[in-house]
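Hey, can you fold this?
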Amino acid sequence: MDERYLECFSLRTLYEIFGVDPSQAVRRLVYKARAMRRGEVLAPLLLSVAAREGHALGSGSSDEIARARQRVATYDAVWRDLASRWDCQLVKGPTIARHYPPDVVRPVGDLDIVVDGEETLWQVVARVQELCPVRRLDLAVFGADEGHHFAVGLSWPSADPLLDMNHYVEVNTFGYMGDSQRVGLRLDVPQDTAMANVVALAEERFQREFGAKDALDLVALMASGALDDVEAVVAVAESWLVAPELLELLRYVASHASLAHVVDRDLLEALEKPARAERERRATGTGLDRPGADVPRHVMPRSRAGGLALRRTTYRSGQPEAVFREFDGLTLMHCPVGDFLVAQGGKLDAAAYRAAREHVRQDRSWWRTSTPDER
């Protein structure tokens, strides 16, 4: 890594981003990191940078870094297995981590995987459950004119569940979620991995404010040369509807003295016009009419619902897609990996959940084939 990028991965940078007085001890920086949103994934980054700059680590700090590296290794093993079986795509994660300095731990909470089609989705979800001690399935269902799209989250306890967040793998039938109001689902992911990661970083702004992890991820991508082709970056940001967010992220990085020197001013300037146009499109509710081979498929969901797992099962090969049906005013979804109670807004009371769970336990007439080992 070029020295001008390498110096961005420093305590000086982290003191500035976290807003801690540089005269304060490093442990104050650690306290601040832990107090931030998802601070449990930021702390290993900070500790690894401190070690890189010569600070002695105790057993607790060393173990925390080791656990973070083990989390990465676990995700890498899962991804390699899935990629050997299906044509799926990885977003962020190891594809950004490879551009970090080797002695710096990239913060990682989950593993994001994109698959093409519902049938592959359930196969991948079933495989993750075979590979990992999954305790919980989370489901989001997006209703659209041409059918449904899904996001499935699989989680299980970390090596130290009292200190670290759960392991989490998310499998989606779309590339990027958007905000479901002005920017819908973008089903496709750019073929170029670096460009896919640029979009993914900008996309984070639909969920939360940008922070240290986003800034350093972008620096790592810049160090790799991913943003060198200004015209290509702008075209992708425009096509995937994230020009305002990418511009905001670049400005966020440039607002820190320790990072500003790596930001391409030409890219900032080039993003101004498409960012303004996209903001105007969102404000006016203008539709999308952008024919071209490089334009992603865009779906604005008519509905979004969460799914509560009623029962997990071994893989049901009799029907590759989900089946929805009504029961006593409730919506049930039966899919190859289990049964779910689908809730569109609001909360479901415990009685409704228990009734639905008992119903699916007793009634299997809806499924085309018998299913062994249901639990």
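Oh, and this one too while you're at it.
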Amino acid sequence: MTRHVEPEDAAARLRLMAAMHRTTAARLDLQAAIVSAGAALSTLAQAMAEGDAADIAAHPDLAYLDLQMRGFYDDMPDTSDGR
């Protein structure tokens, strides 16, 4: 037994499905852009860290200051309350 579907109803359902697919496609495009941006930011952070390390190594006074700061802050007691 076949059920009769009005053409207007079928067209409305198909438009709704098309809108849902466009929404999903837009969301996936956004996710792809976020992944690309994350990878680019990671590369940028790595390049900045390497540049900082090279600058510190090239300037003995900065290298000495870096050692002093690391010694000071690495020896700080943990003040977090454990939450």
